[in-house]
Amino acid sequence: MPPAIQSALRITLAYALFGSLWILFSDRWVEWLFTDINTLTRVQTIKGWLFILVTASLLFGLVSKAFLSIENLHRIDTQTRLLRHPMFKQLIDAQLKRIPEQQTLMVIHVDIDDFSDVNSRLGFDQADTLLISIADTLRDKYTANTLLARLGIDQFGIALQTLNSNENIDEELRELRLALAEAAGSVTDGISFTIGVALSPMDGKDAKKLLSSSSRALHKAKQHSRGSEEFYNDRLSKRENDRQQLLTDLRLAIAEHALSVVYQPQYHLPDLQITGVEVLIRWQHPERGFVSPDVFIPLAEEYGLSDKISAFVVQQTLKELSENRLLGNAIPRVSVNISAIEFNSEPLLQALTNTLRRTPHLLPFLQLEITETAALTDINHCATIMHRLKAMGLRFSIDDFGTGYSSLAMLKTLPIDEIKIDRSFVHDMHIDRKVETLIKAILSMASGFNVSVVAEGIETEHQLNTLTTLGCHEAQGFLLCKPLTIHELRKIPPGHKHVHESGLK
Ligand code: C2E
Ligand code: MG
Ligand code: MG
Description:
Blueprint: H1 3-33, H2 37-75, H3 85-98, E1 103-112, H4 115-122, H5 124-141, E2 147-152, E3 155-163, H6 166-185, E4 193-199, H7 207-224, E5 229-231, H8 235-255, E6 259-268, E7 274-285, E8 289-291, H9 293-302, H10 306-323, E9 334-337, H11 340-343, H12 346-357, E10 366-371, H13 372-376, H14 379-390, E11 395-401, H15 407-413, E12 418-421, H16 423-428, H17 433-448, E13 452-455, H18 461-470, E14 474-475, H19 486-490
Parallel strand pairs: 4-5, 7-9, 9-10, 10-11, 11-12, 12-13, 13-14
Antiparallel strand pairs: 1-3, 1-4, 2-3, 6-7, 6-14, 7-8
This protein binds ligand C2E and magnesium ion (2 copies).
């Protein structure tokens, strides 16, 4: 029976039951209680009014309940239990009134790509399960403060309050993408989502404008490509323009040899003899000033420039160190950072091997630092490559050890000479006792594998003393020495026992 008829029947039955009981019993009670004819007449009149009052209240209760549930159908989507458009809009307006100045309300339009194909591929039941799974995942992911809506058959709306910074907004989108992928993946594969985003107050100061902006952004994204995302405003393209400009400048800097290298010494513990240097690339941009390698190295990796960077670093290092006669006694070991990407691509690896062959004088001193992610794609293939390069006399170090998921597998499978404890561990060592336990475990494992351990990022004497006591082999960090230009490095005499001007004893 349809729910509407059920409700009507329930109301009618309640009324019929109450009316019948009233007729059956009320006259009898009144006649039993009152015998005087005048009183009886008056009571009968009051009883009539009472009947009207009670039935009217009953009717009000039941009818208002029915109307409320009809109204709810307009507010809440029954299938996904998410808000529908009018309610979403109303609540966005309410939230905009309360939003602090440094925050933004991100209004996000999510569209399932090719939903009609999904319907015909999976059938309606499975397609419905997909919609419900998405709604459930969104509900689990977000707090009650985030508004979730169904805006069309295959469209969802999210109004999310967050700090108004590019990093936060990007992170929210990244997390949303992960959640959507997880929801879709639990039902079927091959589903993608296109996303349009509007930000308050820039793209609209009220719900109506924000929703129309996010919908337009979605339209723009759809025209661009499936699975993409667009902002209503040109925030991303501005950022993209900025990246493209930086990339052009980086290409130019590589071509014109405008990059440089610095050397950060590493020290043996506890006697603080220099064991080697780590070579770090530097870029002094003509307008922007210092650009961190954390910014331009990922850009170089993304646009296939990492082989050029490595070639430059290796050649420049050899040139500077040999011109200054520092290779050997003064600097027994030179560590160069190699991008993860170079280890996972045959052509880049070939380019690296060619570069190394062109610098035979550096090879006996050279150590390549690779990050954990470098080996992740195929650790066995990575081991083969490393053995090949080791045959040329190279040593290997695992940078930022302990920050990835494959530290132990790397230690077991790869021919490693050294690991570098990431500076986040050194930093947290005295804040969290568990970190000290982890460092001890790394040291004991490394000694089992006959691998040397360098602790990175030593900034305090307390850190240095603790690491020395724990038996760490080597140390590197601002406390001991900041990265130096070749001219500064030249001033450190051979076999020098380093004493930093900060007063390190
Ligand atoms: P990384 O290989 O882990 O290098 C260590 C980073 O820590 C360097 O930052 C260094 O300046 C910094 N550092 C050293 N001691 C301390 C300390 O006591 N405290 C703190 N807070 N930091 C310290 P830098 O030079 O900015 O390099 C950042 C990252 O960029 C490097 O991390 C490396 O992953 C990458 N990189 C640098 N040069 C090259 C290069 O020539 N090629 C490639 N592919 N990547 C490079
Ligand atoms: Mg490094
Ligand atoms: Mg590191």
